[in-house]
């Protein structure tokens, strides 16, 4: 019971950490963040006395943002890899089905070709019997019907 609870807590913490990393990746990867940092970089032009403080804040942001971006990218890649594996398995199943159908079609077409070949090798029938009645083909050798 304790092992299951510990595994559940660890899984919850990992889900929370992954969610924070993904949100930070989305925030730092947005165009609004670019605009904010651009405005932030222009502040020393207006207030030169704050330059050292802003440099310190900028370094702190970089120390937090860069690892967060790396973790967020890794989490997003993990889910993309999972989707790619699922797609790969589905495609392998489809390929297996297609190969089975192709083998079945080869067997059927070979049977059709064999039957057609056998039908072409049969002698032509001169007399046809349907329901006990006999029809006689009266034609000459050149294919014209005799009178």
What tags apply to this protein structure?
147 residues, 5% strand, two-stranded antiparallel ribbon, 3 helices, mainly alpha
What can be said about this structure in brief?
Keywords: Membrane, Transmembrane, Transmembrane helix. With 147 residues, the chain is mainly alpha-helical.
Care to describe what's here?
By secondary structure, this protein is mainly alpha-helical. The chain has three helices and two strands, in the order αααββ. It has a domain of 83 residues. A two-stranded antiparallel sheet has the order 1-2. Strand 1 and strand 2 form a beta hairpin. It is elongated, with a radius of gyration of 40 Å. 2% of the residues are buried.
Q: What is the radius of gyration?
A: 40 Å
Distance between the terminal alpha carbons, to the nearest Å?
Answer: 102 Å
Strand order of the largest sheet: 1-2
Note the main sheet. 2 strands, antiparallel
- The proportion of residues forming helix, as a percent range, comes to over 70%
Sheet-strand content, in percent, reads 5-15%
Find the count of extended strands (DSSP E, 2+ residues).
2
Treating each run of at least 4 consecutive H or I residues as one helix, how many helices? 3
Average pLDDT, all residues: 82
The run of helices and strands is HHHEE
Q: Which spans have pLDDT < 50 for at least 5 consecutive residues?
A: none
Query: Which structural class is indicated by helix and strand composition?
Result: mainly alpha
The multimeric state of the shown protein is single chain
Shape: elongated
